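Minutes, project check-in
Item: structure for the 65-residue chain
Input as provided by the requester:
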Amino acid sequence: MEEAQIWAKKVELPAFMGTDPIGWIARAEKFFEVQEIPSFHKLQYAFMSMEGVAMHWFYIWSQET
């Protein structure tokens, strides 16, 4: 009898460049669910995935609030 093999795709939080925010949020929420990321870490993960103008905007926003 052959052993069952489980194939899993590596799931990564996609980079956010500032375009298609709704699509990115949907993929990010799925990432958080699959990886079982606690709510209090989600913002840190989101910030680390931002690139370009999105990262600059978020940094400025977080400093002001």
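Outcome recorded: The chain has a mean pLDDT of 86.
No further action items on this chain.
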